[in-house]
Amino acid sequence: METGEELMYRTLTFLREIGKNHLGETILVVAHGNLMRTLLHFLHYAEPHKLPASAVDNTGYVKLRFNDNTFEVMETEGIHLQS
User: Is residue 11 a contact partner of residue 35, using CB atoms and an 8 Å limit?
Assistant: First the structure.
């Protein structure tokens, strides 16, 4: 089983490669909610306890901007943070 750190290393390596090869383009990446939750935590969008398993709707999305080899969360939809 993969740890959260291993998942983020693999995911961010993939996303950076796509970002570098498609600068200025809009890219769609489809993923499971668990990956989306882990990514949001890793990008300091929310703490893990605020993103339970039910936090991501089936049609939820995260819009990222890739700049200088980093990612910024620009928009979310269908992501429900708990207090």
Answer: yes
